[in-house]
């Protein structure tokens, strides 16, 4: 199984450890950069602006349209340390 750890600081933020038999770590479905925003806009465009799709629908979409993954492929995931420092205002 693959683990994804998410957490910020112990100052009231939740920390979670997720287990899943498949590694989805290659997918970047967050909006931290202009490239991420463009990816999300393209996903919504492919669903004709609907918002009733699931993460599995998006997974199928990117498998059928691998060029979508190139939009934000160069963006590095933030580490928990990066997120914690941002939350603390450093």
Characterise this structure.
By secondary structure, the protein is of the alpha+beta class. It has one domain (2-88). It has three helices and two strands. It has helices at residues 34-46, 55-64, 80-88; strands at residues 2-6, 16-20. It has a two-stranded antiparallel ribbon with strand order 1-2. The longest helix has 13 residues, at 34-46. It is globular and about 40 Å long. The termini are far apart. Residues 1-5 have low confidence and may be disordered.
What labels would you give this structure?
90 residues, alpha+beta, 3 helices, 11% strand, globular
* Binned strand content: 5-15%
> In total, how many beta strands?
2
Q: Which structural class is indicated by helix and strand composition?
A: alpha+beta
What's the total helix number?
Answer: 3
Oligomer: single chain
Whole-angstrom Rg: 15 Å
The number of domains is 1
| Overall geometric form | globular
Helix content estimate: 25-40%
Largest sheet: 2 strands, antiparallel
Question: Strand order of the main beta sheet, please?
Answer: 1-2
